[in-house]
Specification:
With about 425 residues, this protein is α+β, with helices and mostly antiparallel strands. It has seven helices and 23 strands. The longest helix has 18 residues.
Length: about 425
């Protein structure tokens, strides 16, 4: 079996209509990931919908509604091989009401490509997306200055946009000197896969070449072991088999482990008997591995979805209260103290009550706008204190970021998303 290439999740972000979907479509088409026939069909579809020129964008937008509206709604995932890596492209929407996908997308992205139209420069969502990438822990970012054809391939325009974007990313903590900037025309195909003849003044990599220059994400094997439980099965002859994905750390056969909160809220300890992945028995599992395992001393009634497994010497944190930075995406009215929606954190779904609104922040810079606001609403970024209605495992962003992010849902919509920044530990 050939050695697998390292895997990278990449998200394309940026202001609406700056050409994110077209960039992705052009990348896939010019590198042969989509064939001529599919492209021809898309051309015909776009023409019949009166949207000629949208065919590249539609390679990712495979929902009918999106085609008719000409905007990206949901996240689409597409595999893409480069010489060095296997990429999963997460095409994140630019529209405001779809920003929840940008958040759930970015929370799992290793690399972000920010697409900025040369004709518009930095816009409101450009700022917001950069801030979100940073707070969601996306470590590497690249910039495509798109629509260079619209500004007649003018280097002065490119330099100005580059300076403005450098300024913006510096504010949130990216180092502009380490960030690649690529002038491009996704629609015409300049500098996406093929070198542009229209911009001889640019000598750097194309977007496709840049994808091989990003660094392989480090697996968080040095962090404490955390395996959120997805399901628990009873298998004849083996017994209880919990299933989950290793988020951090390393799990080995014979490890002494604890599952919290567990049925009594005190944690259940045991010893790992066996670990299985893709129906094969393995001796150890690391971050990203989806595994089934059996533990001596754990019965089916002890453990459930939403519990988290760790080593006995580094027990997962159960919070009686926690402080988080949240971004309100879409709330029908306002959020005030007492509001108790459902939090989706790793595999757990638990109602948490807002007990204090600490401060409201500027969503583009993180600066404090208001101490102790009476309420927060759609578009606001805030620091809040929360109390889970039952035991909940969550970790601090600064310690185990993989278990710090959550989405808040209410009546079927994602109201907000956030990251835990501090915890009051529950005594087990």
């Amino acid at each position: 079996m050939a050695k697998q290439k390292p895997h990278i999740n990449i998200v394309f972000v940026g202001h609406v209509d700056h050409g994110k979907s077209t960039t992705v479509g052009r990348l896939l088409f010019d590198s042969g990931a989509i064939d001529e026939q599919t492209m021809r069909k898309l051309k015909e579809t776009t023409a019949s919908l009166g949207k000629a020129g949208f065919e590249f964008a539609f390679t990712m937008d495979n929902l009918k509604e999106e085609r008719e509206r000409g905007v990206t709604i949901d996240l689409s995932h597409k595999k893409f091989m480069t010489d060095k890596f296997e990429y999963t492209i997460i095409d994140a929407p630019g529209h405001r009401d779809f920003i929840k996908n940008m958040i759930t997308g970015a929370s799992q992205a290793d690399v972000a490509v920010l697409v900025v139209a040369a004709s518009d420069g930095v816009m409101a969502q450009t700022k917001e997306h950069v801030f979100l990438c940073r707070t969601q822990g996306v470590k590497q970012i690249g910039i495509v200055v798109n629509k260079m054809d619209v500004v007649k391939w003018d280097q002065k325009v490119y330099d100005k946009v580059k300076a403005d974007v450098s300024n913006l990313i510096k504010q949130v903590g990216y180092k502009p000197e380490e960030v690649p900037f690529i002038p491009a025309s996704s629609y015409q195909g300049d500098n996406i896969v093929k070198k542009s003849a229209n911009m001889p003044w640019y000598t750097g990599p194309t977007l496709r070449e840049q994808l091989d220059k990003f660094k392989e994400p480090e697996k968080p094997t040095n962090l404490p072991l955390r395996v959120p439980i997805q399901d628990v099965y009873n298998i004849t002859g083996i017994g209880v088999v919990p299933v989950g994905r290793v988020e951090t750390g390393v799990m080995k056969v014979n490890d002494k482990v604890i599952v919290v909160p567990g049925r009594e809220g005190k944690g259940i300890t045991g010893e790992v008997k066996s670990i299985e992945m893709h129906h094969e028995s393995i001796q150890s599992a690391e971050p990203g591995d989806n595994i089934g395992f059996s533990v001596r001393g754990i019965t089916k009634k002890d453990i459930a979805r939403g519990d988290v497994l760790g080593h006995v010497d580094k027990v997962p944190t159960v919070a009686s209260e926690f402080t988080a930075q949240i971004f309100v995406l879409n709330h029908p009215s306002v959020i005030a103290v007492g509001y108790t929606p459902v939090f989706h954190i790793h595999t757990a779904q638990i109602a948490c009550q807002f007990v204090e609104l600490v401060k409201k922040l500027d969503p583009a810079t993180g600066a404090v706008l208001q101490e102790k606001p009476d309420f927060i609403k759609t578009g606001d970024t805030a620091i809040v204190k929360l109390r889970p209605t039952k035991p909940l495992v969550i970790e601090k962003q600064s310690e185990i970021p993989e278990l710090a992010s959550f989405a808040i849902r209410d009546a079927g919509i994602t109201v907000a998303a956030g990251r835990c920044i501090d915890i009051v530990k529950k005594q087990l």
